[in-house]
Amino acid sequence: MSHTLAIIGGTGLTQLTGLTISNAHDVQTPFGSPSAPVLEGELGGMRVLFIARHGHPHRIPPHLVNYRANLWALQNLYATDIIAVNAVGGITRNMKPGTLVLPKQIIDYTYGRDETIFDGEFAPVSNVDFSYPYTETLRELILKSASKVGEKILNGGVYGVTQGPRLETAAEIFRMENDGCDIVGMTGMPEASLAREFKLNYASLSLVVNQASGKGSGAITIREIDENLAMGIQKVRTILGQFVSDYYDS
User: What's the predicted TM-score (pTM) here?
Assistant: First the structure.
C-alpha cells in the first residue's frame, strides 16, 4: 500500500471506536518507549494505525509525552499520513466550546522538550522548512469529509502551544491573543515539527473544550472540560470514520 494513515488520539480519545484491532505493536525505539502500543486494525474496512498520545488509560502529562518515540514507532510501521486530535482552549471570539478547528499555523511556547531528531546522535544536525506546519492536502480532505457528514469545522487559525500541565494565566492568554493565537493547547509541539523531520504528512483536528483563561465568566473547571469533550469527541469520531474512507479512495 502506497500510503497508510495513522491517528494520534489526545485527551478524550484514548480509544478509537469502531477500530477492529488485528495487532498491538509494542515498539521499542531509539528514543525509548512510546506512550502506548501502536494499535493496527481496520476502521470501515480500511487499515489504520492508532496511538494514544497520553497512554491508555490517560496518564502522561503533555510535557512528558515521548513525541519522538511515538512518531518513530508510527513511521516504523509504515505510516505516511497522520491526523492528530487535540483538545484545546478557545482564545478568539469564534472559538467557542464545542467548536472543531483545523489550524493552519503554530506558535510554540514550550520549553525543555525533546524536540528534534537532528541532535547529532540519532541524525546529523540539520534544519527543516517549517513555514507551513500542516499538510494542506490532508487539511482539505478533512474539510471535505466533515462536510459529507454534516459537521462544521473552522478552517484556519493559529494554535499556541504551552508547556502545561497547568492551565495558563489570564495575562498569558492576553499575550497569546496579541501574538495572533486563536486556540491554546499543550500537545501541538513538538509533534508537528517532528512529523516534518520524519517526512510524515500531518494535520491537526482540534476540539475546543473550554474558553481560555480570562475569556469566560468564571474559573475553568474539569467538569466543564469533560462535558465539552464528551459532546465534541462524538463529532470527531464521525469525521474520522468518513475521513478514513475518503483517504483510501483518494
Answer: 0.93
